[in-house]
Amino acid sequence: MKEDVIAPLTKEGLNKAEALASFFDDKNIEQIYASPYRRVIETVLPTAKRLKLLINKDEGLRERKIGRWVEDFYEFAEKQWRDFDYKLENGESLNEVQDRIVQAYHRIIENNEVQTLLI
Question: How much is the pLDDT for 6?
């Protein structure tokens, strides 16, 4: 799914993102990494601006691929939580998502010489 088709943050979400930025003031963040999804970027943007840092987008941090439209998402999610290997065609299981994200974290950490990352 393209990042520009994901719904933007609500006004409340934007306000919370602004409030969150101050939390990182004394954390000595040196680099920021995020999923390329619009909502994630909008969430971390106030922090990046406040800290004067760029946001490094990493596809490995994206949400799971479902595979196709699901009419009853709650039923689908329940199946995934009962069986971490359950997935639809062209989708990802929760085990696959976990493996992908852990690999992304390791890659980001191993390819950085900075002390403090925000992922």
Answer: 66
pLDDT digits 0-9 by tens, 1-36:
444 456 788 999 999 999 999 999 999 999 999 999
pLDDT digits (tens, 9 = 90+) for 36-48: 999 999 999 999 9
3 state DSSP class of 2: coil
Q: Are 8 and 38 in contact (CB under 8 A)?
A: yes
Per-residue HEC secondary structure of 47-113 comes to HHHHHCCCEEECHHHCCCCCCCCCCCHHHHHHHHHHCCCCCCCCCCCHHHHHHHHHHHHHHHHHCCC
Give 32's strand partners: 55, 118
DSSP-based three-state secondary structure for 21: helix
CA distance 12 to 59: 26
d(CA 49, CA 103): 27
User: What's the token pair of residue 76?
Assistant: 């689908």
Query: Rounded to two decimals, what is the model's pTM?
Result: 0.83
